[in-house]
């Protein structure tokens, strides 16, 4: 079955689209990527989404129009990837504008902005969307959802295998070995902390809005890393919270950046913008390295997401993740901007096949659940 997957992450920089073909058993399907595209959001829309995701007040009318704009941008990305309409089904994550993990006294909640029936009408194809709600209703985190698809699409090797997505937030998947005493262990996964959210906001701050991100990490590469600050930041509560856990821009957004920049300035009054970017970049790598050091220790770390193109961030990962091979996920056939869109194509196919899409070992829900809501073409 040909399925189109659409994904826009916490960075809100645009939409990744993948057209894939899935066949065979849902637990380990035969799969092939047929086409892909990456379509940036228009600048004004991205700014609105980032502001909304950090709590900027909007009247109801503006929320509605923002949802319409996001949905129409998803349709454009779908057409860019699949102009002839080969897909029989579309899986669309939508744009997260707020994520609240579960708390002892209440369930979690997560808002992915999208008008599913409108997208189905625009594309004239059925759409599976709202993938997180079923797991959240069971008491799970609703995130991350990609570890289940990593296990199905890639499988294990001779030892533990880690997959890292460096989007706005860094999240990890740990796949158990294909053989040996750990082969029956659960797939693990969680959100580590900030990857690009703070870096992008810092680049915008220091460039007075001229840059949306530090391309290739070249600005950070000119700076000095303030290791004592990183050591202090790594002691913060979220980084010592045991999985399952999830986070987002709500915790690691503008207010968090301002606090960290103030601490850098307090410790080093003469610190340049490059020093701040270097320290924040190294911090993103250090958060991941600290999580991986707790075990199980993987043989290799496959990296995807926009951060995989940040050479300074990748160099920091190599330096801090000693003893494991750090390499791009693209080396095993999935480009860094394809992984999550491919995952939501698979999650949509699983919905069609009535196959559960969540892993209790990752989300903390008491049982797996069928993910997504189906919107058929109105008519």
Amino- and carboxy-terminal Cα gap: 24 Å
Secondary structure tally, helices = 12
Alpha-beta classification: alpha/beta
Q: Return the average pLDDT rounded to an integer.
A: 96
Task: Using the coordinates above, name the CATH class of the largest domain.
Answer: Alpha Beta
Quote the CATH topology of the largest domain: Nucleotidyltransferase, domain 5
Shape: globular
Number of strands: 12
Rg over alpha carbons: 20 Å
* CATH architecture descriptor text of the largest domain: 2-Layer Sandwich
Structurally, how many domains make up the residues?
A: 2
Query: What name goes with the CATH superfamily of the largest domain?
Result: ATPase, nucleotide binding domain
Order of helices and strands: EEEHHEEHEHHEEEHHHHEHEHHE
Biggest sheet descriptor? 7 strands, mixed
Percent range for β-strand residues: 15-25%
Low-confidence stretches: none
Helix content: 25-40%
What's the quaternary structure here?
single chain
Tell me what the structure shows.
The protein is α/β, with parallel strands linked by helices. The chain has 2 domains: 2-145 and 338-375, Nucleotidyltransferase, domain 5; 155-332, 2-Layer Sandwich (Nucleotidyltransferase, domain 5), CATH 3.30.420.40. It contains 12 helices and 12 strands. The longest helix has 22 residues, at 60-81. The protein is globular and about 65 Å long. The model has no long low-confidence stretch (mean pLDDT 96).
